């Protein structure tokens, strides 16, 4: 008696991790045969590695472009144009604290102030935010450089709009935090 289509689907769904693992291993085996054949014909291993990365970039580019466009990175790099690298770097340090705060607001995380663990989380979040604020706002004395700079940046050092850049940086950090929180849903759904 032939198995029904729902039975086949159920079996495939049940053994999906095993099937995917076998497909990956078959792919690696084919890759090793191609690699061995290439080396036997005199291809340099460094050239082969370069070709392999180029082919993988070309194959993965459409998926990355259409399925994983990153609003976070676009806002992050745009904010560098309007602010300073010091400001952007210090704000990126707040991503962990923002992720924790957003997780509490969305009720993914519970903060128990009565426990030592909860107090440590709250204090750590506060220290992170205060440290980033101090690092952003404090203008200390200029440091003397004893060596010549390795990189010289020529061009206009005046940034266009600090307000626009600050908004982009904060929005970038918030979307980055949201991306981390969204991974909770993905990991729960992808469990085999």
Automatic annotation (TrEMBL):
Gene Ontology annotations for the cellular component aspect, listed alphabetically: membrane
InterPro entries from the UniProt entry: WAT1-related
GO molecular function, one term: transmembrane transporter activity
Parts of the chain that traverse the membrane: 15-35, 87-106, 118-138, 167-187
Top-level division of the source organism's lineage: Eukaryota
PANTHER family: WAT1-RELATED PROTEIN
UniProt protein name: WAT1-related protein
Source taxonomy: Eukaryota, Viridiplantae, Streptophyta, Embryophyta, Tracheophyta
